[in-house]
Specification:
242 residues; S-adenosyl-L-methionine-dependent methyltransferases; four-stranded antiparallel beta sheet
């Protein structure tokens, strides 16, 4: 989720987020970060935690404390509802921070791992640099910053992804996202639909701006904030304190 969005962000998306995306997102974050999180011997910081996909993976595969950082009030409500239905011993390991990572009251050098999933493209340059500064501050000397690799170029033609429909009682929940290049990067236009049989019950939409970030620009920003680019794969980038 977005580290920079305010308390009113995701007012439309929150209703549909988990029902359409949670299962797929859980598989993805396990694939991208699961091995590193399982090896964490200290606190894990989940930046832009959303409804808690990374946080709950950390609870399941490590014994580390978790700090879930989420600025959107409606997404925090999803996270806290999921925590309310979790075991008390799991809830005891999670601290939820309302705001961005620079706002969070985390001790310097206290985090073994900072995970920024689906966050970096939503930030402008100033917000990114503030995030890198905060990550460098809270990471322990051997700590690691992980993120999904940002897109370097906007799509040349609109790209559409369709979520698998989900049945809830008499209703079917559907969704799609269209990514289109714009002056500042790319616009993600989400459309959500609820049908009862063949009848349209509701259709809602929400738009988000994402920014393109070539690896050389990202590496320079990280270096300027005391973080050393360490490795990259097809979809994951890692950095450590210099």
């Amino acid at each position: 989720m977005s580290e920079c969005e305010g308390a009113d962000a995701y007012r439309t998306t929150a209703e549909f987020y988990d029902i359409l995306q949670a299962e797929r997102d859980s598989r993805l974050v396990a694939e991208l970060y699961g091995a590193r999180v399982a090896d964490a011997r200290g606190p894990v910081v989940d930046v832009g935690a959303g409804s808690g996909t990374v946080s709950f993976m950390a609870l399941a595969c490590s014994g580390a404390p978790v700090h879930a950082v989420e600025p959107s009030a409606v997404m925090r409500s999803l996270l806290l509802t999921r925590l309310a239905w979790s075991r008390a011993d799991l809830r005891a390991r999670v601290t939820v921070h309302a705001g961005t990572l620079p706002d969070a009251e985390l001790p310097d050098g206290s985090a073994a791992l900072v995970v920024c999933h689906n966050v970096v493209p939503t930030l402008d340059e100033a917000a990114r640099r503030a995030l890198w500064d905060a990550a460098a501050r809270v990471l322990e000397p051997a700590g690691l910053l992980l993120m999904d690799r940002p897109r370097a170029e906007a799509p040349r033609a609109p790209e559409v992804a369709v979520f698998a429909p989900v049945r809830v009682g008499a209703d079917t929940y559907e969704g799609e996202v269209r990514e289109t290049a714009c002056e500042e990067g790319a616009e993600l236009a989400f459309t959500y639909t609820v049908r009862r049989g063949q009848r349209l019950v509701r259709r809602r939409g929400e738009r988000f701006l994402t920014r393109m970030l070539p690896l050389e620009v990202l590496a320079a920003e990280l270096g300027g904030c005391g973080l050393r680019w360490e490795e990259t794969g097809e979809r994951v980038l890692a950095a450590r304190r210099e």
